[in-house]
Amino acid sequence: RMAHKAHGAHEPDCDHGPGTARRLGWSAAIFGLSAVLQGLGGFWTGSLGLISDSLENLNDLIVNLVGLTSLMVANRREPCDRFAYGWHRLEVFNTLFGAGMLLVLAGAVTVEAIHRLQHPQAIQTGWVLLFSLGGLGLNIAATLVLRPKHEATLERDANLKSAYTHAFSDALTSIGLVLSMLVIRFTGWTWVDPAIALVIVVVILRGAFSLGR
Fold first, then answer.
1. What is the pTM of this model?
2. pLDDT for 146-169, tens place per residue?
3. How far apart are CA 203 and CA 47, in angstroms?
4. What angle do CA 34, 137, 154 make, to 5 degrees?
């Protein structure tokens, strides 16, 4: 027992179990609010970039909710001879599901972005900028919520790593969306909106590849 305690004394505190569930729950609420805010703003202002960002937030919401579900189911069964890991392998299926959702959203955004490039549409850049700044703030908040105290925790917790990867990518794309609205605001180049949507698609595909791998 003393050897076990000595070994455990050098291990960092981990954010497993209830810690991960709390993080996923709070971030899911933030992503849900961001998806609604940016989605309504995108349809109202005509911004495809804003709509695509809201879809990515919606995907994050789904991934987090599936992660919470897998934790609830996994914790119902302890490891035994037949199930050496209990049901914790459900985390793997959760991650694969998230990658599949990213691919579907990437395809939908790509089709609409190509259409918008061929037929540019006017957008209300002032309001889009306001909505995108709000989305950026929420994405940063979600990223901070999902950031564990110890880096090693991300490598041991598939659910948390999947959610954190999505959140970090969302924060980066939101920054790009804000910058693109500033460009449109001062130049009138409306094609920048579908162009930034295609950039978001690249981020989505990169995230899907990373999660699938």
1. 0.69
2. 777 666 666 667 667 777 777 787
3. 18
4. 85
